[in-house]
Amino acid sequence: MAKITLSNLRHSYYPNPTEPSDYALKEIDLDWNDGGAYALLGPSGCGKSTLLNIISGLLVPSEGRILFDDKDVTALPPDQRNIAQVFQFPVIYDTMTVYDNLAFPLRNRGRDETTVKTRVTAIAEMLELTDMLDTKAAGLSPDNKQKISMGRGLVREDVNVVMFDEPLTVIDPHLKWKLRSKLKELHQRIKATMIYVTHDQTEALTFADQVVVMQDGEVVQIGTPVELFERPAHTFVGHFIGSPGMNVLPCDLRDGQAYFCEHQVALEGAVVGTPNGKTEIGVRPEFVTLATSGLPATVSKVSDIGRHTVVECDADGSKISAIVDGAGPERGAAVFLQFQQNQTRLYVDGWIATQAEEAQS
Amino acid sequence: MKTVNQKAWFFVLPVLVLVAFNALIPMMTVVNYSVQETFGNNIFLWEGLTWFQQLLTEERFYKALGRQFMFTGLILVIEVPLGIAIALSMPRQGIWVPVCLVLMALPMLIPWNVVGAMWNIFTLPDIGLLGYFLNNVLGINYDMTQDPIAAWVTIITMDVWHWTSLVVLLAYAGLVSIPDAYYQAAKIDGASNWSVFRFIQLPKMKPVLTIAILLRFMDSFNIYTEPFVLTGGGPGNSTTLLSIDLVKRALGQFDLGPAAAMSLIYFAITLLVSWLFYTLMTKDDLN
Amino acid sequence: MQKRSIVPIIYILFLLLPIYWLVAMSFKTTNEILGGFSLFPQTFTLENYKVIFTDPTWYWGYINSISYVTLNTVISITVALPAAYAFSRYRFLGDKQLFFWLLTNRMAPAAVFALPFFQLYSAVGLFDTYLAVALAHCLFNIPLSVWILEGFMAGVPKELDETAYVDGYSFPRFFATIFIPSIKAGVGVAAFFCFMFSWVELLLAKTLTAVAAKPIAAIMTKTASSAGYELGLLAAAGTLTIIPGAIVIYFVRNYIAKGFAMGRV
Questions:
Q1: CB atoms within 10 A of CB A135
Q2: Does B have 3 or more CB contacts under 8 Å with C?
Q3: Domain ranges across chain A
Q4: 3-class secondary structure per residue, A140-174
Q5: Residue of B nearest to A86 (CA)
Q6: CATH assignment of A4-230, given 3.40.50.720, 3.40.50.10170, 3.40.50.300, 3.80.10.10?
Q7: Chain A residues with CB inside 8 Å of B190's CB?
Q8: How far is the C-alpha of A219 from the C-alpha of A29, rounded, in Å?
Q9: Residue range C55-262, CATH number
Q10: Which residue in chain A is spatially nearest to B284 when comparing CA positions?
Q11: How far is C107 from chain B (nearest CA, A)?
Q12: Whether A89 and B187 lie within 8 Å, measured CB to CB
């Protein structure tokens, strides 16, 4: 087990990258702490699989270094890095029994049969595969096959990191939840560093202690699920996490005050620096309330999501969602919107530009 | 999955009619001949199972059958591993893939008697490229019209030349369908190249290899035109395969009865061995 | 990677050598051929090709071969399409047995059938016609086409059919305008194999023809034996028989490997 450091990492699939857009990964500096449960979250094509393959050694980065416990492994092939990876589709050796599948990585490394037996039995126990050890792996259901893939990663006592590349894609919805909690439980028992790649926010937020959000080959925010939800560092994070995502409204900035459609919006705190660029206001629907005064808007859509109601309003061409308790107003009704001040932030060119002021809350 | 629909028979009917017309009527004719004696002029005498008895006690038949099995066995032993090896060393992508495939498929598209004629020209001792090379450059005395071993080596080489590509194409199709994740997982698991072949590539190629072996068995067991054009069954009877012997009897000696009986035995052996191959190769999948 | 590619290169060279020799010989004069060994044509001549393109018995051989091969391909694919659809979509009484029986016809030695075929097609008055050869070749080409097409069709989700019916398509219209285009790769592969096996087969084609429909390859055999050892002419005719196959394979080059893999076993 090890701490993993990515230092000045860049990767391009082109031989001679010149433009920033040639890079699948742009400048990444990251530390993954030993024993942590991480999620790598982002939409398809954001570079998360590239990053994963660089950590596992299947790809050699164009620039930068990878350190496992301060040892440079950039040039090492996957089998010498002591890592494990679980792929999107279960990879099993069809002709072998479940036992032989689990024993395969150990036997390849020349472990003696008694060690193999102890490890395999222990891992099978943990994954609830014990009854199937003697059956051929080929005929099993996708979730059991995926468990075998995981088992092959976990069976080695010396793995530095276990990586999961959207491992639940082919699993039935009702089993997804089961496997996810199994993973969480395994993490607590084995204490190995785990990196879970997904584009599904629920999977990421339930599995990980720390979530790394990526977009267009860049890391936009690293934080606990709560941090990502409450204080998105980038409008993308606000959009991507939460349902519905954060409201992002174009605004003008005059004398440190933000104006949306000539209506002044109170921000959580002072604006940092002197912003020039595209300015936007970000506020999550959870912190927008319907009131008797405030920003005038028209209700365009009301949807009941159980205990709450999502009210979609139109204010001068911009769409603003609000989550309210109980039944909402009628469609077409004129309403006034209030934003909770300590949750209303200014974003400049996508990045957060206000400072929270504790005193105000 | 599939719905039960007896009307589907209407879709199959044209196929059934055409194939039955070509398969059943000639088969009836063969059965008819196999139990009768004919002297031409449509005079037939009932012979019962005489021809079968005669054939099955005859040395000539067993020798031809033995040669047929030897031929098929040899070409399978050479073509299957060779085809797999070539498929494994082919590039997986890039502009060379279609070039390779087209060039490799070329021999399969040449009419069978042209294949025989081509190899005849190629191996002529004095003016053939191979024959000249062996005799005059390497100094090996090679003349397949005189030497049975040379004749055998030539028909085997010709078949390897003609049909190995079929195994290559099939094995290659099996190989490219393996997702990258398998190779990546094997790398991470520390598998050796041999393990990758043994536990990933070979199992994934198995269905296509089953087809390859079956097709190569059937076609080589029934081979006629190419060796006939090349060696005419000689020297002596050394390359007289079962099919060549059959045509000699039927058209050369006009022994229709024995030839028909032989056809039926021949067909039965092909069916039986194909079925055995198929059962053996798919046995594991059933349980 | 680079070291490995030596294997296919050597193999392809091995494949091309006899073909080279055939082509080289077709450009040699008879005198040069019989005069002794030469690696390249010393006196390059097109005489052999001129003979083929001016003598009707020769060039009609090509027309005959191409005619019955095309006819066979059209018949085989036309009847195999609905049958493959039935096998891939429905279960019906005896379906598995029928499928297996179809495949067994691929195993029948052509030598077994030569004489009965002659009698059968003579009896129905089709002897020495394109149709006779085209129909006879259906014996092995239809099972193969059904097999290949069934594999491709099984890969098309059933939802496609259902969506089309919901959208109000009639079955024939759905089949012709939606389904067949979605498996056109499979149709191409099946047609390629029909063409190939019909083009290369000679025993039946020779048995079922006399003059009017005689295939080119059979004319070659006759010439070789009757006109003595005209090797140059034989080589030129042989070279010309490779060309149609090479053209056809060029068009389906991206599908060949796949087509083989699709059949169900």
A1: 14
A2: yes
A3: 4-230, 243-360
A4: CCHHHHHHHHHHHHHCCCCCCEEEEECCCCCCCHH
A5: B185
A6: 3.40.50.300
A7: 79, 105, 108-109
A8: 9
A9: 1.10.3720.10
A10: A95
A11: 6
A12: no
ipTM, two decimals: 0.84
**CA-nearest residue of chain B to C39?**
B129
Cβ–Cβ of B203/A77 closer than 8 Å? no
Summarize chain A as % helix, strand, coil (round to 5): 30, 35, 35
Architecture per CATH, domain A243-360, reads as: Beta Barrel (2.40)
For chain B, state the CA radius of gyration. Answer: 23
Count of domains forming chain B: 1
Q: What is the pLDDT along chain A (361 residues), one digit of tens a residue?
A: 578 888 888 888 887 777 777 788 888 888 888 888 899 888 887 888 888 888 888 888 888 888 888 888 888 888 888 888 888 888 888 888 899 999 998 888 888 888 899 889 988 888 888 888 888 888 888 888 888 888 888 888 778 888 888 888 878 888 888 888 888 888 888 778 889 998 888 888 888 888 999 888 888 888 888 888 888 888 888 888 888 889 888 888 887 788 888 788 888 887 877 777 888 888 998 888 888 888 888 888 888 888 888 888 888 888 888 888 877 788 888 888 888 888 888 888 888 888 876 644 4
Is the distance from CB of C102 to CB of C146 less than 8 angstroms?
yes
Cβ–Cβ under 8 Å, residues A106 and A155? yes
Residue of B nearest to A84 (CA): B188
Contacts of B181 in chain A (CB under 8 A): 87-89, 91
Whether B208 and C260 lie within 8 Å, measured CB to CB: yes
Give the tokens for residue C18.
């006899």
Smallest Cβ–Cβ distance between B199 and the set A87, A89, A93 belongs to A93
Phi then psi dihedrals of residue C180, to 5 deg? -60, -45
Using an 8 Å Cβ cutoff, are B154 and B230 in contact? yes
- Chain C residue numbers with beta carbons less than 8 Å from the beta carbon of B210 are 265
Phi, psi at residue A359, to the nearest 5°? -60, -35
- Tokens 């060379």 belong to residue: B96
Contact B102 C246 (CB under 8 A): yes
Residue B233 falls inside a structural domain: yes
Task: With CB atoms and an 8 Å threshold, state whether B15 touches C102.
Answer: yes
Phi, psi torsion values for A301, nearest 5 degrees: -160, 140
Residues in CB range of A12: below 8 A, 6 or more apart = A22, A23, A24, A25, A62
Best to test chain B binding among C6, C10, C11 (most B CBs inside 10 Å): C11
Nearest to B181 among A77, A83, A89 (CB): A89
Residue of B184, B187, B188 for testing the chain A interface, max A β-carbons within 10 Å: B188
- Helix-strand-coil split of chain B, %, nearest 5: 75, 5, 20
In a domain, B150, yes or no: yes
Q: Is residue B14 part of a domain?
A: no
Q: What is the pTM of this model?
A: 0.81
CATH number of the structural domain spanning residue B183: 1.10.3720.10
Residues of A with CB under 8 A from a CB of B: 53, 56, 58, 77-79, 83-85, 87-89, 91, 93-96, 104-105, 108-109, 149, 152-153
Identify the DSSP state of A6.
E
* Nearest residue in chain B measured CA to CA from C252: B102
- Cβ–Cβ of C265/B127 closer than 8 Å? no
**CA–CA separation, A144 vs A150, rounded Å?**
10
- Shortest Cα–Cα distance, B192 to chain A (Å): 8
Whether residue B32 lies inside any domain: the answer is no
Residues forming beta bridges with residue A136, ordered by sequence position: A97
Going from N- to C-terminal start, the domains of chain C cover 1-45, 55-262
| Cα separation, C244 vs C251, whole angstroms | 11
User: How many angstroms separate the CA atoms of C125 and C141, rounded?
Assistant: 23
